[in-house]
Design brief:
five-stranded mixed β-sheet; about 20% strand; about 30% helix; globular
């Protein structure tokens, strides 16, 4: 049984979970602050649907691949809990809503955005 468990990915040693320096995006007025901050430091918004399997998979891949030494601010938006904020992100930054979705904002402008599997293809290091 132990042999099969090891082959199938089971392990007796707990995995250390990687934590990212997320800032919670919960209010519309934070978007103006993000816009201003983007003039000096790249800002990233990750819009996540907590009820979507694809969104969860993309989020896990993003967290796993993220380089915590990248100098940017990383915002997490639970778009189901904060629908008004999610809608305003689209209006303010002129990007059609999708889920999951990532926006990279620099100098007040979205310089890159992607949804679904395309999120993990963005090289954030290019925008720092």
């Amino acid at each position: 049984m132990g042999f099969l468990k090891n082959i199938l990915g089971g392990s007796k040693e707990p995995k250390e979970e990687k934590t990212l320096p997320w800032k919670q995006l919960t209010q519309v007025d934070q978007l103006e602050a993000i816009n201003k901050l983007s003039k000096g430091k790249t800002q990233v918004i990750f819009k996540h649907s907590t009820r979507c399997g694809i969104s969860k998979m993309v989020m896990n891949q993003f967290v796993s691949a993220f380089d915590v030494d990248v100098n940017l601010d990383l915002y997490y938006l639970d778009l189901l809990s904060f629908r008004d904020v999610s809608n305003e992100v689209g209006y303010k930054f002129q990007v059609m809503h999708q889920s999951p979705q990532m926006l990279v904002i620099k100098n007040g402008v979205v310089v890159a955005h992607a949804s679904h599997g395309g999120i993990n293809e963005i090289d954030l290091g290019r925008f720092v």
